[in-house]
Design brief:
This protein is of the alpha/beta class. The chain has six helices and eleven strands. The strands form two sheets. Strands 1-7-6-2-3-4-5 form a seven-stranded mixed β-sheet, with no helix packed on it. A four-stranded parallel β-sheet has the order 9-8-10-11. Helix 2 packs parallel to helix 3.
Length: 283
């Protein structure tokens, strides 16, 4: 028995209870208590600063109501709320970095270590920075663009790799029999490269293709005819400006802007970047 309920009470006053707050969504069937109108939610819109829900009854007639109190859902009273905010695919959850790692709070970026990640060009570096930048700053790893890999062997020799000075290199179009695969194999003959240099790659002609097509609202990346510069051909297929280097740069920024997290990238790139980071940060 609850002794604190003893004493004078107004038994005629109804007990207050908070109605469940239910976000409106298309397809739910509601009843407006005041009019008795029963219908399926077919539209939700904002008009004059108010959210309006349209209910279609079984005869196909539609009537609109203001969201709030006065609705029954499955016979129970509710407070009908505006639609729940949609979280875009690829959005970064709270407490996570764009790569999906747990965000380290309150830690300053580490002093850059001697080890490096090399990528082919500026666009590769910007994409890696956008998705893995928070993680790399915690680890003190710097990403540097090579501006091509034709002279990779000489670049590695000049770097002087060693146990405390490692290199992780991400190469475009690193597939069997390609020019890039031959360059990578020759580069690994540099003294000190074995065990201290890791060369990995993705199968795409350019890192642009590592962005999942659905993120850009297309079924697949356009095919570019032989003899046409790939980036120019892609921008032309999109109907975007493509005549100058500035057009190429602006086009890439539009593509990069669509990337929010690792979920917007192809697995064949994700795995290779994670492999390089693990290689450089292993104790």
């Amino acid at each position: 028995m609850a002794f604190d309920t003893w004493g004078p009470q107004d038994l005629t006053a109804p007990a207050k209870r908070k109605l469940p707050e239910v976000p409106v969504q298309r397809g739910m069937v509601l009843e407006d208590v005041q009019s008795g109108w029963v219908g399926e939610v077919v539209r939700v819109e904002k008009s004059g600063g108010m959210h309006i829900v349209s209910l279609e009854d079984r005869r196909g007639k539609v009537k609109s109501f203001q969201l709030g109190f006065g609705f029954l859902l499955e016979g129970a009273p509710i407070q009908l709320m505006p639609p729940a905010a949609r979280v875009p695919a690829g959005a970064v959850p709270a407490g996570r970095t764009a790569s999906g790692s747990v965000r380290v709070q309150g830690q300053r970026a580490q002093v850059a270590k001697a080890s490096r990640i090399w990528v082919e060009g500026k666009h590769d570096a910007e994409l890696v920075e956008k998705v893995w930048g928070d993680d790399l700053r915690v680890e003190g790893i710097v990403v540097e663009p090579l501006h091509g890999v034709d002279d990779l062997k000489s670049a590695i020799a000049s770097f002087g790799p060693g146990p405390q000075r490692k290199l992780g290199i991400l190469v475009d179009h690193l597939v069997a029999g390609s020019k890039e695969s031959r360059i990578a194999a020759e580069a690994m003959t540099v003294p000190g490269a074995a065990g201290n240099v890791l060369i990995v790659g993705h199968p795409y002609v350019d890192v642009w293709q590592a962005i999942r097509p659905k993120v850009l609202g297309i079924p697949e990346w356009p095919a570019v005819p032989r003899g046409v510069d790939w980036k120019t051909g892609i921008l032309r297929a999109f109907g975007w400006p493509h005549q100058t280097a500035e057009d190429i740069g602006l086009g890439w920024q539009r593509l990069l802007g669509a990337v929010r997290s690792y979920a917007d990238l192809e697995a064949s790139l994700l795995g290779r970047v994670e492999e390089v980071i693990d290689f450089l940060t292993a104790p």
